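Appendix B, record 7
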Amino acid sequence: MTQYRHACNGRMLRLLGRIFASAQTQRNLNPAAVNRYFCSAPCPSFAVKPIMEPKLYRPTPEVRGMTSLDKEAFTQTITVPALRVLTGVLNKVVKSLRKATIQRPGVPRVVQDKEQSNDFRLVLLDPRRVSSPSSFSEAEAESLRSFGVSEELHYYELQLTYDNLKSEEILEAVLPPDLDVTSAFSRVGHIAHMNLRDHQLPYKNLIGQVIMDKNPGVTCVVNKTNIIDSTYRNFRMEVLAGEEDMVAKVKENGVTYEFDFSRVYWNPRLSTEHQRVVQLVKRGDTVFDVFAGVGPFAIPAARLGANVLANDLNPESYRWLQHNCKLNKVESKVRVFNLAGRAFIRGPLKQELPALLNGTSGVHVVMNLPALALDFLDAFRGLLHQEPPCDENLPTVHCYGFSKDDNPDTDVVGRASRSLGFPLENRCSVHFVRNVAPNKNMLCVRFTLPKEVLFGSDAEDTEPTEEPAPKRQKCEETKNAT
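Structure tokens (predicted):
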């Protein structure tokens, strides 16, 4: 109890000290300005402080359930605390209070003081951060004293409009309460793509317009459908807002790509994984990219000096892969193919591999088709007939897969082993790439292709004609996002 009384007495002394210091400072100011200041300032003992809401914006009932965007309906006036500051020290005060001032798109932190002359301005404060003079930290309070600024709070009527609100605030105001509200999307160039839930679909066009309004540079917002075609790895989509221009230009790890986003596969969340694998490739190595897409593995590897054979079954991916090779000036280092995965392994890869095995440069096989790639590993069984003189230059395989298993590492290694017909346990490494959806992981199995598989005697001499059956999978859940 004694400690409590001492603490209260200490706070009172500090408050009195601040008031005294502020009054002392005012003695050195213009007498007329000082007179206006004290006459207009409310008495601390009797000032009635408005009740502050924990959120700056409280939507009106009229916007709930809106499906066609009416921006004017979001206009609202709120009360925020403010400090009255002489213009001569204004910039210094704002800098010292940068954590306490209001931070809101399009809202100024300093406004004209309507009750005073041009000698003063009002510095607007964040009501969630400052509710009374005691809300200021010791450092902030000391700065105010040093600049001769009274800690007495004044209150300013601030009008918030649609332009001052964040996307999540608008969507929370519109969508039914207690339901999931998302403003998350993945961005590909000028395109924002979303995965809307069923309860959000009635508001899809409004959501699209809000996302486009609140994210500079976004001129098209699309919604994925629930199904991806694993054959070509593209998905159906509908335009929610903006222009229907699907040709995107993106830059990833210093490389520029162009493509029709509606007709090829591109995932901006794989940037780190692309870079990780490419960094394992050395100048002079050879890379076989079985499912190359528009080139996120192939082109960076070629820029580092590797010789690349890149393949994709999708004719659109093949076309944009060629385009991106020219765009990045590596067309002489990349040979491009438009074949099925098995046909590429049993064709160009098989033809090139014998000479590479007798060389000294590394050989990499990248298989980034997570829904199916593990099933393609059996194409390596008995691929070649004559063993090289040593085992030092066997290809390194980077094969991707999805897993919903409780032990995903064990799961993907087991599936890879069954497809190869050879146990990979303790002969491979597994890298976690990302969480695609709840209980669904994407992983990369990396291993040296066993000579027992590559030169197996039980291989078929004829090329298999069938591919693994295409799987239809749900879209990945969108999580971000900038």
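Remarks on this record: Residues 1-53, 459-466, 469-482 have pLDDT under 50 and may be disordered. Residues 37 and 482 are 44 Å apart (CA to CA).
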